[in-house]
Request: fold
Amino acid sequence: MTNTGVLDDHVRARVSAALPDAAVDAVLQHTGKTVVLAATVRGQRAVVKVLADPDPFWAEKFAAELATYRTFEATPPPVPVPRLLAADPTAGILAVTWLPGVPVHPDRYPPKLNDTTVGLLVDTAARLRTWQTPDGSFAPVFDYPARYTRYQRLGLLDQADVAALAALGVVAGAPRMTHGDLLPANVLHQPTADGAPVVTGMLDFEFTGLFLPCFDLALLWVLLAHTPGARQRITAAVGSDPGDLAGFWINVAMVCTRELRTHGDLDAGHPLRARLPALSATWARARQGLRESAGGL
Reply:
């Protein structure tokens, strides 16, 4: 992320009230929902996240992210993550330690990535699947049947799709802890002394929670469409367990239809609508995998 401007007085005042010892160095990111700052907190290099959107949906996601950081303290995950330094849930502010490295790629849909980079992403998702968290640590993020109904109503799923999803849902494994938004931009990496890159951290845990198996891999299957061989590597990481395979194809369908909906809802002329033809092609391939998987039950 890069410096994106000057910190406005209102946000600065909120940070000062919640974190009196914080020294803000730069604005790293300013979106409609959050402001992300580089800072020093309690003498440590830190990242401060400030909730900017009052919508209850984002307030809920902010609270979920804070709860995730607290779970990290009790049960460290198998992938490096920031450590919580301070938080004021009422003010919508949290501070975490700064991690070294740079994002694998800044784009949601990156152009062709090399084999090493794909391996870093797939390995991160695979390692996270091994994390055992105490019961009750996370809540379900998706209501899958409700999504089937919603997307059928929108015309993105047909009756055969819904039937396939329902059949796979019977055999899908139990919901598991999942990052939920494992974009290339949310995985940090840097080279080691011998030049080989390693993952130095994961970021952004607003959507972390319980999903059917292999959601993170399903997301990468959709996003890495421009990288030849990436999908084969991802499906190999899913493995042959019937519950994992069923969860994977359900999640691929959920990601594809969500992406088609969000891009289709953009205003005419919006540059990101240019992704729609590729997304439609991805959904055609995903629909084939979904139905083949259900047909093999």
Observations:
- The mean pLDDT is 94.
